[in-house]
Design goal:
Radius of gyration: 22 Å
Largest sheet: 9 strands, mixed
CATH superfamily of the largest domain: Alpha/Beta hydrolase fold, catalytic domain
Number of helices: 12
Structural class: alpha/beta
């Protein structure tokens, strides 16, 4: 299937440290494209082996160039047996869609005026307020214009701005039966992979913003997938849904706006959340607007928040991370750590506060990785030369006990597996380590 992408083994023989040729780079980036956009596809392992001849630092450098894009990438496709109908409304194009578990979800896109697929562009996500469910395509495009205008005002004229219809479909009050929030996360995972297959996104500058209901989702999406985002900007939104796992957000830039007279979303919730985040060392900016309720005085502050977020790109390799979750759907990656098994899981229910049933704090100092966990049985670590020296021995201490000591094998296959698992070609790892927690 993918074998035709590769040169013969004779042409690929290269000493460690040699740069890939242009055709070899194209082949490697095509593999990156495949694992990001089609994670269910089985890779041609024999073909991957040909790339094991190259130094993983060089493979990582090329992987960070991202997937291959051309002028056809953003054209209409066939999705779930039907051809997309794309419609333009000013700068917005609606009708993009993707399929997840038999259901088709749509989204609309506003591109920078000078967008070129050869360059990477920042992305601002509006999760999509449920109030747009019964609007026509023009009406939905108008809702996206609100965020387009705020991005432009904040100096983000070069940003891609996207609004999804996911919450309209399966969020609270949506057109279909609401899904538990952790299941909605999986829908957004599929959404991002589809976006990455069409538009050249700068993964160091992906941000999410929202008002009221979509502010709820800005908080939740970022807490569930912290290594996906550089920052978030919720306005007039509750925080109860992320209270159990606020520590997941420690490495993000966060702007919060709220009115002190908001009766729909009590101001005490964001006040407490902001204090906790500040104590964790998060970069957080809080605007509390006096005499303001659940209204436009608060909503438009997002533009100011985007100015703040713009100053803080994502750090793909923080030395200290946290990940807490109620189940594995809510789990996923936190930068260089993924929770693979919990001692027990929550089944999930829409709009219900769920306690974190497991969590890990991780810290890298020199060649030592220290993990402290509760309720976690197994994890996978993705490790990079950006974090420690992979040519030297590495020690992992989990809850006070040494669970690994020695050098790790770097490989092209491990790199591709982790790129595909994370849908992330910027935070690239050359080695992986699967660990089982120590017995108590």
């Amino acid at each position: 299937m993918l074998a035709f992408l590769f040169l013969s083994a004779a042409l690929l023989v290269a000493p460690g440290g040699e740069k890939l040729s242009r055709s070899e780079q194209l082949a490697w980036r095509t593999l990156v494209t495949e694992v990001v956009t089609q994670p269910q596809q089985t890779l041609d392992v024999e073909s991957i082996k040909e790339f094991e001849r190259f130094d993983t630092a060089e493979l990582a450098r090329v992987a960070r160039l991202g997937p291959n894009y051309d002028s056809d990438s953003a054209k209409a496709r066939e999705v779930n047996g039907a051809k997309e109908t794309l419609e333009s409304f000013g700068r917005t194009t609606s009708g993009y869609s993707f399929e997840y578990e038999g259901h088709v979800y749509r989204y609309a896109v506003s591109l920078p005026r000078k967008y070129e697929p050869s360059e990477a562009w920042p992305l601002l996500l509006d999760p999509g307020h449920g109030s747009g469910a019964k609007l026509d395509a023009a009406g939905k495009a108008g809702m996206l214009d609100y965020y387009r205008n705020m991005a432009d005002e904040a100096g983000g004229r070069d940003w891609i701005v996207i609004r999804t219809e996911i919450i309209e479909q399966v969020g609270a009050g949506g057109l279909h039966k609401p899904l538990p929030e952790d299941e909605v996360i999986a829908v957004y995972d599929a959404f991002f992979r589809d976006v990455y297959s069409r538009f050249h996104v700068d993964l160091s500058q992906v941000r999410v913003a929202g008002i009221s209901q979509t502010g709820f989702w800005a908080w939740y999406l970022a807490a569930a997938r912290p290594s996906r985002f550089a920052g978030l900007a919720p306005a007039a939104a509750v925080t109860w849904q992320v209270d159990p796992n606020l520590e997941n957000l420690r490495n993000l830039a966060i702007f919060v706006a709220h009115g002190d007279q908001d009766e729909k979303c009590p101001v005490e919730q964001p006040r407490v959340a902001v204090r906790r985040l500040a104590n964790l060392g998060a970069r957080v900016l809080y605007h509390e607007i006096a005499e303001a309720g659940h209204d436009g005085k608060v909503f438009w502050r997002i533009a100011k928040g985007l100015e703040f977020l713009k100053q803080h790109p994502r750090d793909p390799y923080p030395k200290q991370i946290s990940k807490a979750c109620a189940n594995l759907r809510e789990g996923g990656w936190a930068y260089w750590l993924r929770i693979d098994e919990l001692e027990r899981e929550d089944g999930g229910e829409a709009s219900v506060k769920r306690p974190a049933l497991g969590g890990v704090d991780g810290k890298i100092e020199g060649q030592e990785i220290r993990l402290h966990s509760e309720g976690v049985k197994r994890v996978t670590l993705g490790l990079s030369s950006e974090l420690l020296d992979l040519d030297q021995s590495i020690t992992v201490i989990w809850n006070g006990k040494t669970v690994h000591e020695g050098k790790l094998q770097t490989s092209a296959q491990a790199m591709l597996e982790l790129i595909g698992s994370k849908a992330d070609w910027i935070g690239v790892f050359e080695a992986k380590l699967e660990l089982t927690g120590p017995k108590r």
